[in-house]
Amino acid sequence: MKTNRAERSPRANRAVRTPGGLSVRLDVRALVVVLLLLAAALAASVVLIGTGDFPISAGDVLKTLMGGGNAGQEFIVNELRLPRVLVGLLVGASLGLGGALFQAVSRNPLGSPDILGLGQGATAGALTVIVVFSGSAGDITVGALVGGLGAGLAIYLLAWKQGVHGYRLVLVGIGVSAILTAVNGYLLTKSTITEAAQAVVWMTGSLSGRDWEQVWPLLWLCAVLVPLVLCNARALRMMEMGDDVSNALGVRVERTRALLMVAAVLLTASATAAAGPVGFVALTAPQLARRLTRSPGPNLLPSLCMGAALLVMADLLSQKVFGADQMPVGVVTGVLGGVYLLWLLVTERKAGRI
Amino acid sequence: MTAAGRTDRTLDNRRSTVNRLSAEDVTLAYDQRVIAEQLSVEIPDSSFTVIVGPNACGKSTLLRALSRMLKPTQGRVLLDGQVIQSMPAKKVARTLGLLPQSSIAPDGITVGDLVGRGRYPHQGLLRQWSTEDERVVQESMAQTGVVELADRYVDELSGGQRQRVWIAMALAQQTPLLLLDEPTTYLDIQHQIDVLDLCAELHEEQGRTLVAVLHDLNHAARYATHLIALKGGSVIAEGAPSDIVTAELVEEVFGLRCQVIDDPETGTPLVVPAARKARAVVGEAS
Questions:
Q1: CA dist., res. A48 & res. A10, Å (int)
Q2: Predicted local distance difference test score (pLDDT) of residue A4
Q3: Going from the N-terminus, what domains does chain A have, and what CATH number goes with each?
Q4: Are B120 and A249 an interchain contact pair (Cβ–Cβ within 8 Å)?
Q5: What's the CA gap between A55 and B114, in Å, rounded?
Q6: Of A142, A273, B135, B183, which is least packed with CB atoms within 10 Å of its CB?
Q7: What pTM was computed for the model?
Q8: DSSP code for A27
Q9: Using one digit for the tens of pLDDT, what is the confidence trace for A140-170?
């Protein structure tokens, strides 16, 4: 994985220009990476839809999606498995993009929602609903959303002093995360055995039983936030060079940062509300995307596609290896992500950064 | 709508007795710590102004205020007759550039890419990379002598090369005013002179207004056309170095006994600190 300086080639940046004076900059390699990741995510999705107690071939899945399947296939594909896969794609994409935003703003790969305690915040919200209010599945989603947003707000306010700086954000996040873990532990001890079982399933992060009810809110949120975030991507690239340089270049640093942090918290919190705290996607997706594109900059779109591809492939892996709905996807991403985190910490240590 | 054209027009229209950049009665503070009070400074147009003073005299703070990195708690900084904070960020960035003391080069960025980022204030969502951008980036790299480094990674460069690259980035911004915060710090003597020569060139050949904070008084006296000596947040003296740099001024501002002689190379004032023994005798006497 380590990029060798000798084999890194100069970037192929191309600009597409119109006679009217408009121009768009294209990073060819990043574009290819995005297209390949999209293809991988969609291919894995088709296979995933075909996987389960009633296996359906990829061809039949595609036929059914186009509206040409028989009644049984229609029901299984469109009502049971498609929404589940869509939730997976959307959750993965939101976590990938949210993670990339957090890491770019904090200028630190550890400044990810996983480390910062957003997942713990959502869990605290969900557990409160389960244990204290004995709420329904819908209530749990709302509770998780509120918890995630609350944790995001707390970290933002605590770390906010003349701008969020990398390590302060990470350290405050670790503190918030530790407190929330304790709160979650307390709530679990107060729960009955059924509540605890329900809570633990939620806490692992899973896609089973997700249907269209989870798809629509996520889809709308992404439809609004993704273009908004991408429009600010150029300013975010400038912010990588520090507040002074980006200010000097005419970036409204404080405003852009606040906007992007709010977007990142919304994306991560709603993804967590929909599927539970699926671990480490937000941490790993941007780093893996960056290694593929070999491009400096926040790599927002590649991270988004990487997140979606990672989550769907992790779900596919868990279904193929352990059987349908035996192993929540959060376990797989947790194991893969944990190994990755260790590797990251070791290499960072070797590079003398921590 | 070329931004460069607009900047040039503004430059012509505003040619008047009033200087483009000035601070009026500013109070500068970080949180509660006041660095300077009621400080007024004019940057003469087309000058190479150098701000000198002992550590913690507020010279970098003044530069931050002039470049709107720091908002004065009182008073105002004016750019082309307007309060700098009230102007659109990108408009300021097309008029006034800043090279901060420490800059972070993103991991794995090439020289060409970094210099290109200086074009940001001239770009927009649908005008991301024009032929003009490309031309200016090439020109800026040529001026700073980093063309052959264009495809190298910034983190592989030496300190002197890296500083040239950052200056190239600031040049690509095409601003008539350029502020530099200690551009020679951490460089060896050869590269210090190298960077200062480059600054002098930019000033003389292109008529840019340059404002720099420098530590070395002799460098300041040699290169500046206008010198501002600060102490404790107030201006002690300002003017052409040959007019204001005297042994008395150096003692007042830096508390250092010295002789001021003519620089044998340029004829500008050269500060020679008194020998240790001579200073000790004076110290006992006073």
A1: 38
A2: 40
A3: 90-317 (1.10.3470.10)
A4: yes
A5: 52
A6: B135
A7: 0.87
A8: E
A9: 888 999 999 999 888 888 877 655 666 788 8
